[in-house]
Specification:
single chain, about 180 residues, alpha+beta, 3-stranded mixed β-sheet, two-stranded antiparallel ribbon, 9 strands, about 35% helix
């Protein structure tokens, strides 16, 4: 129990860096809800050499003495904790898109360019982190660096849409020259 708990503590303290374009968010695996099937692994270890007939138990015990035994830990991440972390810490770097503009100066329409936005895809980033973290061999992995899934966001009015405006649709003016001040 102590060996597995110490091993898990070491893994949970490993830092993970998530890159969002040129921004970086760092946390630990423990803060993302990383855990393993501790009780099941201990039960599996305790049952080694204790099942079957006497000869099989003896043979299995000798094999363990000579070669050791390997217990597979099944790791998992708390998806809710991971999702909340990505929402709270990665989406703060989202960039809102800017619509194209249209002004009229000296009888000409002037179009200002639109700007694309950038948005972290929480769902895809969570899937990416989960699949990457759960497939690593932490006896050899030192650094965990993952690029978040970021997608472009189109503005509501693009430069192409606004540049279609070429004609004045109407004019109106009101004169107050005949009224009293």
């Amino acid at each position: 129990t102590k060996v597995i708990a110490d091993y898990m503590k070491d893994i949970q303290e490993k830092s993970i860096t998530i890159e969002i374009d040129d921004q970086v968010v760092t946390t630990t695996l423990g803060e993302l809800g990383y855990s393993c099937n501790l009780e099941e692994s201990i039960e599996e270890a305790m049952s080694l050499g204790k099942s079957g007939n006497f000869l099989n138990r003896y043979r299995e015990s000798k094999d363990i003495e000579e070669n050791g035994a390997s217990i597979n830990l099944v790791a998992s991440l708390d998806k809710d904790v991971l999702r909340q972390f990505v929402k709270a810490n990665c989406t703060q770097f989202d960039i809102e898109p800017e619509n194209a503009g249209l002004t009229r100066e000296n009888g000409q329409f002037i179009v200002t360019e639109h700007k694309l936005g950038r948005k972290v895809s929480v769902k895809d980033t969570v899937k990416l982190i989960e699949s990457y973290v759960l497939t690593q061999d932490y006896t050899t992995t030192e650094k965990i660096e993952i690029a978040a899934v970021v997608e472009d966001v189109e503005p509501e009015y693009t430069t192409e849409m606004v540049s279609l405006c070429t004609d004045v649709l109407g004019k109106f003016s009101t004169s107050y020259s005949s009224s009293s001040s």
